[in-house]
Structures are given as structure tokens and as C-alpha cells.
Design a protein that fits this description.
alpha/beta, 7 helices, 41% helix
Length: 247
């Protein structure tokens, strides 16, 4: 069990919500973000509050460096020094490049890579000063190898950028006791299905069934442990062995 403070972005629903619940069950003091006007935070907050009554939900879309600084300051003022940051925010557009717009381009680059850079810039100074930190970012399956995927030119490019950014931070920040790792989910057909439910969903990866939020959350939990300081610069494919790109 941990008593560290963990921030999970984009945890009002989907994989982020499962990760936040898993960390709370492991003893972390959890804060999470949600998008104002998007999915309300109530369900995630209520589920976590059973284990962590002080759970903090913050409306923040990390639209700028200032937003990220404000987010980290709010977490640290109400929960304590930020030890773990799991960046689960990542909008997706599935569209051919020919049909994509400038707005799509900006949404993919800024919403995926831009938010990751802003969060790191805000969180890392405190982690460096304290000599401990765990950062986890999200790619798409195959992003580490710039695997092409039809209808995902902009999203795939943004996620490949996230992976390169994260792995470079892993080189630069390790001397301060900070690890930086990436999770690449693949073939998670239903992002609210439990592991048992996912086993009953047929999928074309080597296991023959889909993955679940529990599989992703377990990978994150493994990467952020206090004793995981030598696990650095990893790209964890949570995909059942699937090689092809699949979000």
C-alpha cells in the first residue's frame, strides 16, 4: 500500500477512471481531472471516495502551460506533494488525412502531445526537488515503432511524438529519481469491461479475446511503484500480443 499522491488526467470515464480507482485501492491519495462540459466526475469520485474520502476532482483540460501549473498547484495544496502523474488524456480523430482539417490537426497535436508537455513541465520541478517521481504517458499500439494506421495519420503522429518525448524524459530525469514510462493499449474493445467480461469478447489478437481497463491499470500500477525505480523508458504494450495498430 502506498500513501503517495497520484494525479490521473481524464479520469471521469474510460481507462482513466479505472486507473484512478486502482491507485486508490492501492492506497494512493488520488486527484483526477475531467473536462468541463464533458463526462461529469461524480461516478469516479464516488467510487474512489469509498477508499479515499479526500479524492479531488478538478476541471482542467490542460489547454496551456498555465493550466498545467494551476492543476499541479491545486493538487499539491489540497492533497500534498505530487509523486505520480498518469496522463490518460488523449482525444482521437478517426479520419483520412484528405478529409482532415486544420482544426483536426491542432486538436490531435495539442490534445495529445501538447497536454503531455504541459503536464511534464508543471510536475517535474517539484519531483526533481524531492528526488522522486513517476510519470506515465499513453501511446497507441505500435506508436513506438511509428506503425502506420489507416485513418489515424494525425492521431498516430501525435502519439508517436508522445512516446519520443516520454522516452527522452526518461533519459534526462532518471538522475533525479524520476521514471518516465509509456503504456500502449491495444484491442481494449470496451473500456468499461472488467477482465472477466473482456475474456468473453472475441478479438483477433493472439489471446483470442479483448483486453480490459484492469489490464491497463495493472500495468500502470506496476510502473509507478516506489520500488520500480529501475523500470524506466519502457513502452508497455497492453495488447494481448497484437502487432497491428489498434486503438
Amino acid at each position: 500500500m502506498s500513501s503517495r499522491v497520484a494525479l490521473v488526467t481524464g479520469a471521469a470515464s474510460g481507462l482513466g477512471a479505472g486507473i484512478a480507482r486502482t491507485l486508490a485501492a492501492a492506497g494512493y491519495r488520488v486527484a483526477f481531472t475531467y473536462r468541463d462540459g464533458g463526462t461529469p466526475p461524480d461516478a469516479t469520485r464516488d467510487a474512489i471516495a469509498e477508499r479515499d474520502p479526500g479524492v479531488l476532482a478538478i476541471a482542467n483540460d490542460l489547454g496551456s502551460f498555465a493550466d498545467a501549473v494551476e492543476l499541479v498547484a491545486a493538487v499539491e495544496s489540497q492533497r500534498g506533494p505530487l509523486d505520480v502523474a498518469v496522463h490518460a488524456v488523449g482525444p482521437i480523430v478517426v479520419r483520412s488525412f484528405a478529409a482532415s482539417t486544420e482544426a483536426d490537426y491542432r486538436a490531435m497535436l495539442e490534445g495529445n502531445l501538447g497536454t503531455a508537455v504541459a503536464l511534464a513541465a508543471a510536475a517535474l520541478p517539484g519531483m526533481r526537488a524531492r528526488g522522486f517521481g513517476r510519470l506515465v504517458f499513453f501511446g497507441m499500439n505500435g506508436a513506438h515503432a511509428t506503425q502506420p494506421a489507416r485513418l489515424m495519420s494525425l492521431y498516430g503522429a501525435a502519439k508517436a511524438g508522445v512516446v519520443t518525448f516520454a522516452r527522452t524524459l526518461a533519459l534526462e530525469e532518471a538522475q533525479y529519481g524520476i521514471t518516465v514510462n509509456v503504456v500502449e493499449p491495444g484491442d481494449i474493445r470496451n473500456k468499461t469491461a472488467t477482465r472477466d467480461e473482456a475474456h468473453r469478447i472475441v478479438a483477433a489478437n493472439p489471446t483470442g479475446h479483448a483486453g480490459s481497463w484492469e489490464d491497463v491499470a495493472d500495468a500502470v500500477r506496476w510502473a509507478v511503484r516506489d520500488d520500480a525505480g529501475f523500470l524506466n523508458g519502457m513502452v508497455l504494450g497492453v495488447n494481448g500480443g497484437l502487432v497491428d495498430p489498434h486503438e
